[in-house]
Amino acid sequence: MAVVSSIVAVIMALLILFVRMKASKRPTNAKKIILPPLFMSTGSLMFLDPLFRVTKGELIEAIVLGAFFSIFLIKTSKFEIRDNHIYLKRSKAFIWILVSLIVIRLALKSYLGRAIDYHQLSGMFYLLAFAMIVPWRVAMYVSYKRLEKQLKHNPTLWST
After folding, report:
1. Residue 79: beta bridge partners?
2. pTM above the 0.90 mark?
3. What are phi and psi of 79, to 5 degrees?
4. What is the pLDDT of residue 157?
5. Which of 45-54, 81-90, 93-102, 149-158 has the largest mean confidence?
6. Which CA distances in Å does 149 have to 28, 45, 64, 66, 81?
7. Tell me: the pLDDT tens digits for 46-73?
8. Which of 33, 75, 100, 105 is most deeply buried (CB count within 10 A of its CB)?
């Protein structure tokens, strides 16, 4: 089961990378920034099953680590205005950070899997991912809104 979930994690990382590369080719909007964490939040339903519940310590560890990892995503997610639209800038650093995060995740999962029940570990990694995506998307939303406001106040300034 651990091998299957690791393979799924790698596939998801590759999917994120592919989506990110395509996203930089089209203008973005607030909805595209806000929806992923909302969709992901449905995963919280797993905690209705007592098997997936984590201790307070595990909860804090997962959230702190997720928030820490979000810093790297925030630093590599920048927007630019082209042709009176807001685009997500491509970043080579994002690719390396995403790859590094998946390697760290797999290493942690392998190490922690020896001491923590599989279900609890799944809950912890869900919390880690959610604690990573929410601050990242909030920062992206704030940055997007700032550029959107500049664009509305002076649209001809950004024409190319």
Report:
1. 88
2. no
3. -110, 160
4. 56
5. 45-54
6. 14, 36, 32, 30, 12
7. 999 999 999 999 999 999 999 999 998 8
8. 33
Amino acid (one-letter) located at 53: R
Structure tokens at 43: 């995963």
Token pair 């909302």 is at which residue? 38
| Residue indicated by tokens 């639209």 | 85
- Residue 74, both tokens: 């925030």
Task: From residue 36, give the alpha-carbon distance in Å to each of 30, 83, 130, 132, 137.
Answer: 11, 26, 10, 12, 8
CA dihedral 61, 118, 74, 150 (to 10 degrees): -110
